[in-house]
Structures are given as structure tokens and as C-alpha cells.
Specification:
The protein has about 110 residues and is α+β, with helices and mostly antiparallel strands. It has a single domain, classed as Ribosomal Protein S5, domain 2 (2-Layer Sandwich), CATH 3.30.230. Helices cover about 35% and strands about 20% of the residues. The chain has a 4-stranded mixed β-sheet, sandwiched between helices. The longest helix has 18 residues. The radius of gyration is 13 Å and the shape is globular. The chain binds one RNA strand of 426 nucleotides through α1, β3 and α2.
Length: about 110
RNA sequence: GAAGGUGGACAGAGGAUCGCCGGCGGGCUCUUCGCCCGCGGGAGGAAAGUCCGGGCUCCGUGGGCCAGGGAGGUCGUUAACGACGACCCGAGGCAACUCGAGGGAAAGUGCCGCAGAAAAAACACCGCCGAUGACCGAUGAAUCCCAGCCAGCGAGAGGCGGCUGGGAGGAGGAACAGGCAAGGGUGAAAUCGUGAGGUAAGAGCUUACGCGCGACAGCCGGGUGACCGGCGGCGAGGUAAACCCCUCCCGGAGCAAGUUCAAAUAGGAGCAUCGAUUCGACCGGCCCAGUCGAGAAGCCUUCGGGUUGCCGGUGCUCGGGUUAGAACGCUUGAGCGGGCCAGCAAUGACCCGCCUAGAUGAAUGAUCCUCAUCGUCUGGAAGAAUCCAGGCGAGACAGAACCCGGCUUAUCGUCCACUCGAGGAU
């Protein structure tokens, strides 16, 4: 994935279910942000997972959205609390330009 | 050379910065893990739909018959195909060329709406005939004239029709049986068309010319063949994307296939082999062979079990299940590029060179600059095509997931080759 190595990504279904299970959530017009504490206390890296269903579009559109979000997260990773995050892309997010997307995501993390 | 036809190529280019995936090399580290540096690689023509075909993997095994599914002009090509090539036939087009589920309707069964008399076996609504038989007619037929009557037809008129009476007339009339299928009309389709003969009226009934067919009847020539040409013969409804018949092909599931390892949990079985015996199992059914099983498998179930059926030895050893944990499978392949030969071609043989993504909540990206391309606007040059400068905008369809060969569908645009040819020039 663009701009974000495996260490900073959620890679297992378990992780997704855990974050979706108990988490703080906030949302904007095109995204939903879920955040949860990491299990144990060893890891101190913020990690991200992305969900983009077929509502967002075909495979090309979904890839585009995911890459945009990851690029954003890569740049902000240092500033963010060391939690596990899941961002869910909603319908319409594939039409955003990257600047608009960054602005909206900024708002969510604040 | 307008318009058109066929085939093919490309899918913006270069740079800077920040990143992602995997490979190789080096360094740090005792090693592993990990970190750092360098080098070179990283989506498509359809990667898509998953519609065919194959490789590969496992299951459950070989044969026969049946069932089921698929294919369908011919000959080739191929690993294979429903793909591709060439050709044949039919349809469309002035042509280049395009399109076609393109075997059999005389093996049998079925169906053919509406219209029409009739839709496949012959029938006969209007119509034609009245030869033949019956009927009426010299005790006077048809036809003509005159008069009267009528609840008929008609907007109406003795205009048409019917009836009665009278006159003229002088031998047929009428259409019951029966014959006919020419004409009318219906239809996508009605037993071939036109002329002549023929007849009571008619008819491929006969004949000339034409049209058609491949059943009856074949034969000759050409072609591997589909088929084509000729002579002869004949005159049949269509429908098989209705059942069906014929020929050929087909086991199932799929990389979440499958193999290995690890940890945790449960906790004792598993395998091989010999003999007897009957029963059962072997993925549509049956049969044969073979193999396997004896808490196996099948069936039923309230998920506890029940039921059909029911033996003994010998030897060996670790084995099995679960879990979206990890690794392998995983990219060198019916591969790509070039040459040459064979072939009309699809394609094949040989030689040389090349290595070209391997992710797995799934890498191949983001930002900026420059230059091309196309569209559009403004200004300038010129009569115009066009050229120059500047501004604005556009770049589609779409993301590998085991790998190939096809097909189909989506797609902003650009370019090339061949071909046909309205028209122009000579």
C-alpha cells in the first residue's frame, strides 16, 4: 500500500473486529474513524486499517481512496496517539481530490 | 481521391522530492530476528466478465450398457476447444467485404396463431361444367314484347328481381346426383409459370420454353471433401432455437487445490499383512472385475442414540483432528524477441538471443516542474487552408491474485498498412 509499511497496518481480521468492537468513533461526510487502544503495552506505534466496500466503486476507485488515506496517515503518524485506527470510506469518497480528503481527515483526527 | 471495408500498433514522455512491495550484493550483529547502505525490477489490452478449452493438484478405479450434458457445412491447425485458417453453400452490399446453432422433414410423433372453403390429408366457399344418370320441355324450353301483382333489392325511377296472365318464338332448360380446380378471395406458405393443344368444363393431361428438386434413378467429368458442371429423371408445404433420429466428445471438485512446519488443546490409537465368511462401500443408475471396511459405510434421529450387519491371527510404529498462524505451491512458461525454411493461411520445424510483478485487509503511489497530443477562446500574418503567440480545458475503460490458449464486453483518443471506389485529371 502506498506510503505505509506493513508494521503500521492492521493485517488481520481479528484486529479489525477488535477495533470495531469497542472504540471511539467520529465521522465526517465521507469517512468514519474508529480508534481503540492496542492490546498489551509493548507496541508504541499508531497503526491503521482501511475499509472500503464496493459502495465506494470498482477496484480502481477503492485502491485510489485507500492510497490517499494511507499517504495522509503516513505523514501524520508521528503526531497521532499510539492507537489502532480504522477508517471506513463512505460512498462518494472516490470523487474527492487529495487536498479535500486531507482536510476532511485532519478534522477527524483533531 | 469523398464516403466506406479489413487488419494492426500505441494507451503520453522526461525530471525532482517523499513513500510502498519483493530480488541481489555489502555492512552492523556470535547466530537468528532486526537495522542501515547500494544496485537494478514492479499491472493490462482488455489485468474485467468467468462463457469455452487445457496444464497443474486432490478425490474414488478400470471396463461395458443406459441415463444426462455438449458440439454440428467440409478439410485443416492445435496440448485442447464451442477458438483459428482456407474453402463450399445461403443471405446482404455497386464493390472491398460482412453475416449465418449451416446434419436429417421420405424413420416416426407433434405443431402451423389470425385470415381463409381448406394448413397436410385431402377438401370445395364463391365459381366453372352439366359429357353421363335423374328431372322439366312440341299438352311448347331459352329468348323477346305487353299488362298486372309483390311484405324483395334500391336514396329514387317498371331501375333490378320474383310471380301471374297474354302474344311472338320453335328446342332446349335447370343444376338434384355428379365432374372440375382454370379464375376470385385469404395467407409467410395453397400441389411450378407462360403460350399452344385438349375438354362438357378442366387439369403437367400433352407439348414448347422457362423455373425448381435431389425422394423416385441414376450416369459421366472435376475436387481429399463440403460441393460444382453436364446428360437423364422427376414436380415434393413449412417447422428439428418442437419431441426425436444420426455422427462425434464428456468422471468430479478446484490454488481457500494441495504439501510441510509450528504452537496450544484433547489424549490413544494408527498402519501393514494373512485366512474365513457373508453383508456393505466405492459421488447419476445398473452389471462385471478389482479394491476397501467389519462402529466401516448406508439409512433414521428428539443429536443421547437407534437400525441393517457383526470374525480371528501376526507384525510394525508413532499417528490423527482443529486453528484465515507461517512457509512451500508461486512463477522458466503450449514464454518473449529476431532470423530462416515449409505451408494460400491458421500453424509448425530449426537456429540465435532474453528472463520480464509475485502481493495476501492484498505492493506498483502522491506532490511539483518541463515538453509533447487533442479541443476551445483571444490577438497577429494572409483572400483561404494554415502558421505564430498567449489563456483555459481534456486524457478513457479499467487493478495481476496458480498459469496458459481463445471468446465476449468496456474504452478519451492518436497513428500505420492494405483494399474498394463517388468524383476529378490525363
Amino acid at each position: 500500500m502506498t506510503g505505509l509499511s506493513r508494521d503500521f497496518r492492521l493485517r488481520k481480521r481479528k484486529d479489525y473486529l477488535r477495533v470495531q468492537g469497542k472504540s471511539d468513533r467520529s465521522q465526517s461526510a465521507h469517512f468514519i474513524l474508529l480508534a481503540a487502544k492496542q492490546p498489551g503495552s509493548i507496541e508504541k506505534k499508531a497503526r491503521l486499517g482501511i475499509t472500503a466496500s464496493k459502495k465506494v466503486g470498482n477496484a480502481v476507485a477503492r485502491n485510489k481512496v485507500k492510497r490517499g488515506i494511507k499517504e495522509f496517515f503516513r505523514k501524520r503518524r508521528e503526531e497521532v496517539l499510539a492507537k489502532d485506527y480504522v477508517i471506513i470510506a463512505r460512498r462518494g469518497s472516490e470523487l474527492l481530490r487529495s487536498r479535500e480528503m486531507n482536510k476532511e481527515l485532519d478534522g477527524l483526527f483533531r
